[in-house]
Amino acid sequence: MSFFNTFDAAIDFDKVSDLHRHPLTGINVLVIGAGPVGLYTALECWRKGHHVVGVLERTPAPSAAGDSFTVLASHIQRSWPRLFQALKKVTFEMNLSFYKLNGELVKDAEPFSLENIAQGRANDDGEVKKTEIIRVNRAVLAALFLGQARELGIEISYGKRVVDYFEDDIQAGVVLEDGSRASADVVVAADGIGTKSHRLINGHDVRAMPSKHSIFRASYANDPVISDPELNDRFLKCKEGSSEFQLWTGKGLSIAIASFPKEIQWYMTHEDTVGISKESWHNFVTPEQVIDFLSAYPEVPDIFKKLVKTAPPESIIDWQILWRDPQPKWHSTRVVQAGDSAHTFVPSSGSGVNQGLEDAVSIATCLQIGGNVKNGMWAKVHNKLRFERISCCQLMGFINQSHYLKAEWGANALDDPKNYRPEYGWWVMRHNPERYAFVNYGNALRNIIDGTPFQNTNIPSGYVHKPWTLQVIYDTLAEGKKLKFDGDWS
């Protein structure tokens, strides 16, 4: 808790008097989960005029677990100006460099520029301008959102483990482990992959399918790297206010090394041969276990193994990559899922947290527009506006994972920097979920009511959504085929 309290004290958050809050709706909202998605949902619901009765979190205190992710911050910049400025002070511009698995440089570091992706195209607001993209530590983002929520007077309660969800004609709520209950007009389930809301919404839990891949994930202070001249020279190349993301690629193994001014992170995506992988932030392994695993890859240089040895106890986790079929329905009448509760992503998608933050904006906006909680139409419209986009972002993750680990890597392919780059389309980057909800709510509602044709435009141009399953994706990858889909995914 001390990290979060100290962090709060140093930040100038948006004050109630500084913000444009929409007219009060009289709708009470309870949020389950105090991760970045749950907290941002609470912030957006407050901004849209809803009354956030509280946020319930199962952990006993704010958690610093996790490493980092890439955030598209344009919506935060528009709606939470001081919060955005605070975010900018603790995040870093990204520079990408590419290497073969043996450590041989393919292309030196260059800024990860959205201008190269945009190619002069306008965003959803009709503007041709820079889209904010930043790399941020998960705990830092959660601390910022937590501090902003406290500034607005939103109550966050810890040690509240939810074991069930319920709803009736007048309210929705949750049952806690101690038998007590909490309720509101609307409940947002943002409590992650283990959410108990599936039984209420879909009548069953969501089955996970092993992907046969795992990822070692490590994050810790870079002091031991700085103190070693060889490691410092090799891995800590970032300038003040920036980060470097090295991507090392070879057959069956992908290594990423992220260096920040005060922190080092590294990741290894690999076939799940160790047998101890779990989908948990607490599944710790030792540096010795990682180095033992690397014995199967003699081309990996000693300098990387030396870096692995600098990891302190309980800083490396072995994360099992599980796949889940897309769930077309994320809501009942009064309960709606957000983030990983509704849709999970493989780490290579680069979209998980961003789509969760978009969920937060869309839920708050659709609830504001729809108003009538009793018929649940606001939730149906939100689902209609978001599902196809999420499905496409999930497919993008599989495209990237198959790209990094593809079996046909050869000398020629590894010499071309273009073969290292992840897929990030402008259709992902340009989106404004708040504007999209305002513009499309009526047409989506009409489609739900009487079947009037409606086509989402927040997906790749020219792509027509088709239902898919993980088994089809897995079979395609197992056959060594490249994942390819109609439309413009650039």
Could you explain the architecture of this structure?
This protein has 490 residues and is an alpha/beta fold. It has two domains: 2-91 and 134-207 and 325-409 and 423-437, FAD/NAD(P)-binding domain; 208-323, no CATH class. Helices cover 34% and strands 23% of the residues. Helix 2 (36-47) runs parallel beside helix 6, helix 12 runs antiparallel to helix 13 (377-404) and helix 13 crosses helix 16 (433-450). The model is unreliable at 407-414 (pLDDT under 50).
List keywords for this structure.
globular, 490 residues, 34% helix, 5-stranded parallel sheet, 23% strand, 17 helices, alpha/beta, FAD/NAD(P)-binding domain, 8-stranded mixed sheet, 18 strands
Overall helicity = 25-40%
Classified by CATH, the class of the largest domain is Alpha Beta
CATH superfamily of the largest domain: FAD/NAD(P)-binding domain
CATH topology of the largest domain: FAD/NAD(P)-binding domain
Spatially, the strands of the biggest sheet line up as: 5-4-13-14-15-12-17-16
* Overall tally of structural domains: 2
For the termini, the CA-CA separation is 42 Å
Regions with pLDDT < 50 over 5+ consecutive residues? 407-414
Q: What overall form do the CA principal axes indicate?
A: globular
Count of helical stretches: 17
CATH architecture of the largest domain: 3-Layer(bba) Sandwich
Number of strands: 18
Largest sheet: 8 strands, mixed
Please, what is the average pLDDT?
87
| Alpha-carbon Rg, integer | 22 Å
